[in-house]
Amino acid sequence: MKNTLKRELPPALKRAVDRLYAVFSNYRAPSHCLNVCLMCCMDEALEKEMRQLPLRQITARHFYEYNCSAKDVPQPPREIKYLLPRMLELLAFGAELHHSRAIYLSRLGNCETGAFSSEEHEAIAAFALAYFSDRLGQHPWQSGEAEGYGSDEIFECLLMLEIGGVDLQPLLDYWLKDESTAATLHYVSAGFYDFWQQEQRIDNAFGKDRLQFQELMKTWLTDDGHRRTFAQRILDLEMNNFDQTPTCYYGNQITPQYMAETVFDLITY
After folding, report:
1. Does the first or last residue of the chain, that is N or C, have fewer Cβ atoms within 10 Å of its Cβ?
2. Helix (H, G, I), strand (E, B) or coil at 183
3. Residue range 25-52, pLDDT digits in tens
4. Which residues does 139 contact at the CB level (< 8 Å), separation at least 6?
5. In the chain, pLDDT over 70 holds for what percent of residues?
6. pLDDT, tens digit, for every residue of 124-156?
7. Contact status, residue 94 vs residue 34, Cβ threshold 8 Å
8. Distance between CA atoms of residues 226 and 55, nearest Å
9. Please, which residues have CB within 8 angstroms of residue 215's CB and are 6 or more apart in sequence?
């Protein structure tokens, strides 16, 4: 497991985490077994610790087994609400919470409609925006800035949040307005690998059958105005300032410069 506490959260993300703890502070740890399988999925001692440890002492290892375990649909909302602030705090630190990032928040998304109050929804939405904007502001091509955090494709981040029940439109609106170099680099790398050369569908196994997600992303990415905006931002990039170490793409060595040129051509045809 990663050392999840090695970086300090940026102020906006820390405020969002603190808000989660405040909004969900009235929920208490379940007195009975969590919604997990103790036969073959989760260690019994870890399950017990999740109910008995102070909330902020629950570790990424606990959540990894908890999230990977067999579980009911729908999920028990009070259990999720108790654990949610710590789970999202660990997510903010970059913790590994499941073997597949896209479904880190599947328990949250599997709570029944109406299970959360408007205040709770707003706290979750505020966290999602702060988390996404933090991810969007870091890209590994900007040598030494990302330090490994944010190296996963941004589309997978959006899919994870959508599976968790988050409305993605405010996040996409933020991306469109974000003129930072990192936000444009995410557009280039994610678009090159996972959309423009993939029949204009997000190429992720967990998003294949999520039709609402696919339609939203296609509409946003193919919008003529959005494409013009990002085409200009790609033209403004100074690619020589970034790490041009080639990556392997179907057996070919592809540089960031090539990706940027390819995406530019595809969105301006």
Report:
1. C
2. helix
3. 999 999 999 999 999 999 999 999 999 9
4. 145, 146, 150, 181, 182, 185, 186, 189
5. 93
6. 999 999 999 999 999 988 754 434 443 458 999
7. no
8. 42
9. none
Q: Is the pLDDT of residue 5 over 60?
A: no
Structure token digits, residue 111: 């709570």
Taking the C-alpha atoms of residue 145 and residue 38, their distance in angstroms, rounded to an integer, is: 41
Phi-psi region of 161 (alpha: psi -120 to 50; beta: other; left: phi over 0): alpha
Residue 59 has pLDDT above 90, yes or no: yes
**DSSP structure class, residue 30:** -
Q: Give CA–CA dist 20/225, Å, rounded.
A: 35
Q: Coil, helix or strand for 248? A: strand
Looking at the whole model, is its pTM more than 0.85?
yes
Under DSSP, the state recorded for 10 is P
SS3 content of the chain, % helix, strand, coil (to 5): 55, 0, 40
Distance CA 65, CA 146 (A): 27
What secondary structure does DSSP assign to 42-110, as a single string? S-HHHHHHHHHS-GGG--HHHHHHHHHS---SS--HHHHHHHHHHHHHHHHTT---SSSGGGTTHHHHT
60-68 and 77-92 helices cross at what angle (nearest 10)? Answer: 130
Provide φ and ψ at 125, rounded to 5°.
-65, -40
Residue 49 in contact with residue 30, Cβ under 8 Å?
no
